[in-house]
Amino acid sequence: MTIEVKVPELPESVSDGVVVVWHKQPGDIIERDEALVDIETDKVVLEVPAPLDGVLEKVLSAEGETVKSDQVIGLVKENGGHAQPLSAGGAAAEVKTETVADHGQPLSPAVRKLLAEHRLDPGQISGTGKGGRLTKGDVIGFLEQQGAAGAAIQEPSRVEAPAAKAPLTKAPPPVAPTPGLPEIGEERPQKRVSMSRLRARIAERMLQASLGTAMLTTFNEADMLPIKQLREKYGAAFQENHSVRLGYMSFFVRAVAEALKRHPEINASIDGEDIVYHGFCDIGVAISTDRGLVVPVLRDAEHLGLAEIETAIRDFAEKARSGKLAMGDITGGTFTITNGGVFGSMLSTPILNPPQSAILGMHKIQERPVVVEGEIVIRPIMYLALTYDHRVVDGRDAVTFLTTIIELLQDPAGMLLDL
Amino acid sequence: MKQDYDVIVIGAGPAGYVAAIRCSQLGMKTACVDDWIGKDGSPALGGTCLNVGCIPSKALLESSELFERTRTGIAGHGIAACDIKLDLPTMITNKDLTVRDLTKGIETLFRFNGIDWLPGRGRLLPERCVYVTGHDGDARSLSAAHVIIACGSASVDIHAAPLQGERIVDSAGALDWTEVPRRLGIIGAGVIGLELGSVWRRLGAEVTLLEAQEQFLAMADRQIARNAQQLLQKQGLDIRMGALVKSSRITDADIEISYQDREGDHTLTVDRLIVAVGRRPCTENIAAPETGLLLTEGGFIHVDDHCETNLPGVYAVGDVVRGPMLAHKGSEEGIMVAERIAGQQSELNYDTIASVIYTKPEIAWVGKTEEILRQNGVEFRTGMFPFAASGRARAMRETDGMVKVLSDSETDRVLGVHIIGVHASELIGQAVLAMEFEASSEDIARTVFAHPTLSEALHEAALSVDGRAIHIGKQARRGN
Question: I need a labelling partner for B186 at 20 to 30 A (CA). Which of A43, A47, A183, B96 fits?
Answer without folding.
Answer: B96
